[in-house]
C-alpha cells in the first residue's frame, strides 16, 4: 500500500461516525429544551459513533506512521503531527466554552466552573469535579482517551519497541482492571475502561491492510453490514472486559477497508464531511442547541424539525470552520513543524487523520 492511497471508505466512515453523534445529541437537545417528558433518544445509539472513531484512530496510527517505526526520531515526528492535528481546534473550542461560562455564568444549563477542571481540560487530563470525570468541553472526554493513546504509541516509538506488543501490554490490563473500578476513584481511573481496546483493534486492522492481504467482497460486505447492525441495535452484557461495541466497530471498519477497491463511487462531499468530522464533533454542542431554543420561543414542538435543523446548521457551520479556520491553521503549523530533512510524506496522515 503506497502512502498516497486515500481510503475513501474510511473517510466516509468518519463522516458516518460524526453524524451518529450529532443525531444523538440533536435528539437530546430537543428533549431537554422542548419535550422533557419524552424518553431519551438512546435507542438511536448515536454514541456508538465514538467506537467507530476510536477504531479509526487506531487504524490511522499504524497506517500513517509505518515509516516512522524504524526512524530514530519517528516518535518526535509522530507526536508533532498529532499535536498539530488535535490540539489547536480543541483549545479553540475549549476557550469558547470557557468564555461562555465567564460571560454568562449561571445562565447556561449545567454550568459550574472549576478551575482545576479547566486547566486539566487544556492538558487532556481526566479530573474529578462535581460534574464527574469530564472536561470543560463535554465531548472532550474522547480526546482524553485519544491523547492517552497517542502518548502510549509515542512511547513505543521512542523505545523502539514493537508497537503492537507495547500497546497491548498497556491497554489490556486497563480493560481488565475496569471490572474493579469504583465510582469514587480518582480521575486517573478514567482510563480503566474496555473502550481502550478499540484503538488496538484499529491497529490490527491497519497491520492487515499493510500486509497486502485481500478479502472476498461478499465477506467484507457482510462484516460491514453485520458490524453496523450489531453496533446500532444489539445490547451487550455488563460488566465486561472486552469492548463488544468495539468489536462491532472493528468489523465495520475492517469490512470498509477491505471493500476500498469497490468504493470509488463515493462522492467528494462525503469525503469532505469526513475531513470536517473533527470540527463537527467539537463544535456542534455550540450550534445544535440553537434550533430547539428558537423553536421553543416560536412554540413549535416538532422533533423531526428540531433535530433536522440542529443537524443542518451544525454541518453547515462546521464545514465553514473546517475550510476557513482548521485547514489554514493546520497547514501553517505543519509547514512550521515539518523538518525539511525528513523524507517522510505527510499525505498518509491526511487520508484518515
Instruction: Indicate the structural class.
Output: mainly alpha
* Average pLDDT figure: 88
Tally of separate domains: 1
Task: Provide the succession of SSEs.
Answer: HHHHEEHHHHHHHHHH
| C-alpha termini separation | 17 Å
* Proportion of residues in helical segments: 55-70%
Tell the overall outline: globular
| Helix count, DSSP H or I runs of 4 or more residues | 14
Instruction: Pick out the low-confidence regions.
Output: 341-353
Secondary-structure blueprint:
Layout: H1 8-34, H2 49-63, H3 74-103, H4 115-122, E1 128-129, E2 132-133, H5 141-158, H6 163-177, H7 197-210, H8 217-233, H9 244-258, H10 268-275, H11 277-287, H12 290-297, H13 303-337, H14 347-352
Antiparallel strand pairs: 1-2
Key structural traits:
14 helices; single chain; globular; 353 residues; mainly alpha
What does this structure look like?
With 353 residues, the chain is mainly α. The protein has one domain (8-352). 64% of the residues lie in helices and 1% in strands. Strands 1-2 form a two-stranded antiparallel sheet. The longest helix is centred in the last third of the chain and has 35 residues, at 303-337. It is globular and about 60 Å long. The two termini are 17 Å apart. The model is unreliable at 341-353 (pLDDT under 50).
Amino acid at each position: 500500500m503506497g502512502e498516497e492511497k486515500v481510503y475513501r471508505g474510511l473517510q466516509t466512515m468518519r463522516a458516518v461516525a460524526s453524524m451518529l453523534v450529532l443525531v444523538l445529541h440533536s435528539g437530546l437537545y430537543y428533549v431537554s429544551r422542548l419535550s422533557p417528558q419524552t424518553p431519551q433518544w438512546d435507542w438511536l445509539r448515536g454514541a456508538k459513533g465514538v467506537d467507530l472513531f476510536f477504531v479509526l484512530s487506531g487504524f490511522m496510527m499504524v497506517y500513517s506512521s509505518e515509516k516512522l517505526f524504524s526512524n530514530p526520531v519517528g516518535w518526535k515526528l509522530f507526536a508533532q503531527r498529532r499535536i498539530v492535528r488535535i490540539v489547536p481546534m480543541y483549545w479553540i473550542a475549549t476557550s469558547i466554552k470557557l468564555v461562555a461560562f465567564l460571560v454568562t455564568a449561571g445562565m447556561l444549563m449545567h454550568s459550574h466552573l472549576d478551575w482545576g477542571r479547566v486547566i486539566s481540560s487544556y492538558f487532556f487530563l481526566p479530573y474529578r469535579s462535581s460534574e464527574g470525570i469530564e472536561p470543560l468541553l463535554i465531548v472532550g472526554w474522547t480526546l482524553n482517551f485519544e491523547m492517552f493513546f497517542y502518548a502510549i504509541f509515542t512511547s513505543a516509538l521512542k523505545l523502539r519497541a514493537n508497537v503492537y506488543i507495547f500497546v497491548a501490554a498497556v491497554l489490556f490490563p486497563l480493560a481488565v482492571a475496569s471490572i474493579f473500578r469504583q465510582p469514587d476513584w480518582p480521575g486517573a481511573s478514567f482510563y480503566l475502561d474496555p473502550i481502550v481496546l478499540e484503538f488496538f483493534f484499529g491497529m490490527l486492522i491497519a497491520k492487515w491492510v499493510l500486509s497486502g492481504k485481500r478479502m472476498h467482497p461478499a465477506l467484507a460486505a457482510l462484516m460491514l453490514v453485520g458490524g453496523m447492525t450489531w453496533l446500532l441495535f444489539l445490547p451487550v452484557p455488563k460488566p465486561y472486559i472486552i469492548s463488544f461495541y468495539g468489536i462491532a466497530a472493528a468489523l465495520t471498519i475492517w469490512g470498509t477497508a477491505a471493500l476500498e477497491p469497490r468504493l470509488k463511487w463515493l462522492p467528494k462531499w462525503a469525503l469532505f464531511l469526513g475531513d470536517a468530522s473533527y470540527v463537527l464533533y467539537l463544535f456542534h454542542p455550540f450550534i445544535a442547541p440553537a434550533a430547539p431554543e428558537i423553536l421553543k420561543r416560536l412554540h413549535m414542538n416538532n422533533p423531526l424539525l428540531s433535530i433536522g435543523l440542529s443537524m443542518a446548521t451544525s454541518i453547515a457551520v462546521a464545514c465553514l470552520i473546517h475550510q476557513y479556520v482548521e485547514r489554514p491553521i493546520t497547514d501553517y503549523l505543519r509547514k512550521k513543524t515539518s523538518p525539511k530533512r525528513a523524507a517522510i510524506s505527510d499525505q498518509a496522515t491526511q487520508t484518515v487523520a
